[in-house]
Every structure is written in structure tokens, then in C-alpha cells.
Amino acid sequence: MRGLLGAAAVAAGAGAAVAVARRRTTGRAERMDRWHSVTIACEPEELGPLPPPLDSLGFPVEVVIRPAPGGRGTELAARMTEPRGRDGVRALRKALREARQLVEVGEILQPDSPPTTERTLTGAPLAYATRHGKEEGRL
Amino acid sequence: MKALCWNGVNDVGVREVPDPRIRNSGDVIVKVRRSTTCGSDLHLLGGYIPFMRKGDVLGHEFLGEVVEVGDGVRNHAVGDRVVVSSFVSCGRCRYCRNQEFSLCDNGNTNPAITEGMWGAAPGGCYGYSHAMGGFAGSHAEYIRVPFADVGAFTVPEGVSDERALFASDAAPTGWMGADLGGVRPGDVVAVWGAGAVGQMAARAAILLGAERVVVIDRFEYRLAMVESRIGAEALNYTSTDIGAELLERTGGRGPDVCIEAVGMEAHTPGPQHAYDMVKQQLRLETDRPAAVREAIYHCRKGGSVFVLGVFAGFVDKFPLGAVLNKGLTVRGAQMHGQRYIPMLLERMSRGELVTEHLATHTMSLDEGAAGYRIFKEKKDGCVRAVFTP
Ligand SMILES: NC(=O)c1ccc[n+]([C@@H]2O[C@H](COP(=O)([O-])OP(=O)(O)OC[C@H]3O[C@@H](n4cnc5c(N)ncnc54)[C@H](O)[C@@H]3O)[C@@H](O)[C@H]2O)c1
Ligand SMILES: [Zn+2]
Ligand SMILES: [Zn+2]
């Protein structure tokens, strides 16, 4: 069902951006204590116990670092240890993406600025989606 | 600076926008000398990829001169003449290390949108909507190029701007279709679409040793180019029976490799077209896959189909039965430009790969709207309208 909604959303235009960006949850409530992970192209030893920016989330997280199978790099998994709601999940997802980028690239890729776009009513949902472009999705 | 921007569905125009700035240490700023329209842009203009905002700068295939470098850039200096891969890729992640640059983990600042749509996010692309990172495009006087050591390539002296421009995207896209489609010496290869991408795929197949290469389209002026400039055979699907022709040319087997270079706005003669148009307009199907269906149908048993045309969402009447029962391999990708560009520039300098005929129209940015119109409507013998900002 969510898959179909996704399909309709893609087609429905810019207003769909937010819905599309939102994590699919197959109808069940999102579990706030779920592990979120990224795989990083590095050896486990290259990561400290709490790779930045996971160390500056402002709330505690549990972290597991382990080699990915078959030479696929290193898995970095994290989850909240106290309830922080959706905002916590969003912050965690963004921090994981940035942790990977900091290890692999050394800095966070910035969007173009100043932007060339104009604020419009129809563009507002998409602007919202890009403001939260690293917080939703499927990590 | 001046830039050609998306203002709304089927509405482009020149606007004054802020100059780009260095934002990361690996960035360079390029003064654009040439920037070409691409079939991919048509999908954006038509509103089929609904992630554009008013004022987004279009264009992703370009060449220019480096005018500013970030302090982490090693391979480029001010004054370098560079051609830039249309995909923004970090060069460090697992995908980049595997040479699958368009799958980069670190090239898109908004990965959530495409993760939601497709299950995982590809890398970023210039001028290709906020789903692909929201990077400003190249139909402008200047453009910011992130990860310049990975994505910008110095053009050898003997290669003209006109030729090297197409190393940005059309040529590597075509090459990838033939390469990852598995073209080998002795193969018969069929290519759907005689645009720049289809022509480059056909040329790649020839250079990879294919025995025969046949390109299918309905525009005679493009098919004539296929014969005279690319050295491949041409078939017009509106005036001949493609299936019968392909069987005749392959001893009844069918082509070994079928490359689709048409994309989501495919045209078909007959009732299938009306079906797809209506479903697409009602948004019951986001993409029209006529050429993909054809490629799968005509491919030989055990053969390979490579989808180069851009698709954004969902298609109808996908011939899964043929895929399964004929044991086909179906594959697709956005182009891994960085993997092929140095080799392509070398071939360009040796004269093996000629591209300048693709730029049928060269115009200023101010003529951008007109350029897109003739390109979209395939008027006046247009293959690609190229802008010189
Ligand atoms: N995979 C990638 O990285 C990548 C890169 C660049 C372009 N593309 C895609 O490649 C496709 C072609 O790009 P282009 O710039 O050559 O576009 P184009 O519009 O110039 O060419 C498309 C051609 O396909 C022909 N065509 C339409 N329906 C057909 C059918 N049923 N059978 C055979 N031919 C048919 C058209 O007549 C036209 O000549 C587009 O979808 C574009 O988005 C993909
Ligand atoms: Zn392109
Ligand atoms: Zn990468």
C-alpha cells in the first residue's frame, strides 16, 4: 500500500517531495529504538568510538562499529538510548551520513550558495524537503 | 551573472542570478565556454521530474576554463581548459572506488528524496533538480564544480572545444551502454534512438569490435548522420518492419546487445502510444517505455539489454515474460563519466571519436528558450543546441 502511495506521490508533483522523502515504514509505527547504519569505505580502526558528528548530537546514542562482510568496508550503526521522537531519528540519520562523509571525503559537501531559486508557493514543499534532505530517507 | 533557468513546466528563460562561490575545498569555479542541451533536460522541462524550483539553472554537459580553485584542489589550476562529468562524485566512497561514479554516496546533498523514491540515492548531477542534489547547472556564465579533482578533466591541446564538449556526458553515456551492455567483437548491436546518446552508443559499439551496429529512429536527418558520421546502419521504424529487418540482419537470431537511448518520452506508432500518453497524463504511469519494450522483444535469447534513456518512476506493460523466458540480462545506469572521460578524450585526439556534428545549433544563452524549442520539437535538423554563455 505504501508502495502505491509512493508511486502516486512521485507523479503528483512537487507537493509530493516531502512524502517521498519520508521514510517508508510499511504501515507499522516507526520504532524509535531501531538501529540506523551506514557502511563506510575504511577500516574499523580508522573510526573512533563515537565518530563525529555523532558526538555532538546532544543526546546519548549507542554505537556499534564492525567490519562489513567481504571487504565492503566498515559498518557504523547507531541508535537512540532514550526516547527522542522523530526529531531524534532525523538528527541521527543526518549525523550518520555526515560521519561517513567526514571519514571518506574529509568535509561535508555544501549546497550551492547563494541559491539561484525564487521562493514561490508551489516551490515551498520542495524547499522544505531539501532543508531536511539528509534527515529523512532510508538509513 | 546570466543563466538560463527553469521557470515552470515548459518555461525557460534567461535571468540574472548570483555568481557561484567556492563552498568546499575541492571546488573549482569554471567559466563556461560551451554547454549543451540534452534529452534528459526535456524530461525536466516537461515536468516529468517534479523536483524543480523556479530559478533553477539548467544544463549538465559543459566545458570551460577554471577561474578559481579551492585550497584542496591538486589537479587543476586557474586557466585550465576542462570538460566536466555531469555527475558529482566524491571519488572516495565504495561506489566511486568501484568506478560506479553515478552511484556516489557523497555527491547529493538531498539524498532523502531519491532514497524515498528508489530505495537508495544515486550521486548528484548539475542542473538536474533537487532530487539530484540541486546543483546549479551549466547554462550560465559560471558554474561551481565540487570534487574537481575527480570530475573535471583537462582537455588535451589537439582536441577542440566543439569536440571535447561531448565528453562531458553524451559520449561516456553511450560508451557505458556498449561497455556495460557487454558488447564484444562479433556482436550485432541494435540501438534505439539516434540522438547524441544513441549515436555515441553506436560509435562505442563499433570501436569495441561489434560486427554490425544498427540504429533505429524516425527522423531521417538523424539517421543520415548515423550512416555518414558514425558508420553504423540506420533503420526508420515508421517506414519499415524493425523486427523483420533485425532478424534478416542477424541470421534469425536477433541482436546480441540492445541499447535503449530514448527515455521516458518515447514515441510509438500505433495504439500503444495513445495508451502510454493517456496513462502518463493521468499520472497512472510516470514514464513511457516504448523503446524498452521493443529492445526486450527483439533481443536474442540470452542477450543483453542496456537502458540508457532516463526513467524516473514506473512503467506499464513491462515485458517480464520475454525477460524471463529468453534469459535476458537487463541493466541500466546513469553515466559513470569519470570512468571513461580520459579514454574518450584520447580517442577524440586520435580522431576515432568525432562529435562536433552533434552540435547542429550554436547560440547565445539569450536564445536559450528558442534552442530548447527546436531541440524538443526536433526542428531544423536539430540534434543538440549548444550555448556559448
Ligand atoms: N543514462 C545516462 O546517464 C544518460 C545521460 C544522458 C542522456 N540520457 C538519456 O538518453 C536519452 C536520449 O538522450 P538524447 O540527448 O540523445 O535525446 P534526444 O531527444 O535527442 O534523442 C532521443 C531520440 O529517440 C528517438 N525515439 C523516440 N521514440 C523512439 C522509439 N520508440 N524508437 C526509437 N527511437 C525513438 C527520438 O526520435 C530521438 O531521435 C534521454 O532519455 C536522456 O535522458 C541518459
Ligand atoms: Zn545529458
Ligand atoms: Zn563517491
Automatic annotation (TrEMBL), chain A:
This is Uncharacterized protein. It comes from the Bacteria.
TrEMBL record, chain B:
The keyword Isomerase does not apply. One of its GO terms (molecular function) is metal ion binding. CDD domains: FDH_like_1. Gene3D superfamilies: Medium-chain alcohol dehydrogenases, catalytic domain, NAD(P)-binding Rossmann-like Domain. Keywords: Metal-binding, Zinc. It holds the Pfam family ADH_zinc_N. InterPro entries: ADH-like_C, ADH-like_N, GroES-like_sf, NAD(P)-bd_dom_sf. Residues 196-265 form the Alcohol dehydrogenase-like C-terminal domain. Residues 25-149 form the Alcohol dehydrogenase-like N-terminal domain. Its cofactor is Zn(2+). This is Glutathione-dependent formaldehyde dehydrogenase. It comes from Virgisporangium aliadipatigenens. The gene is fdh.
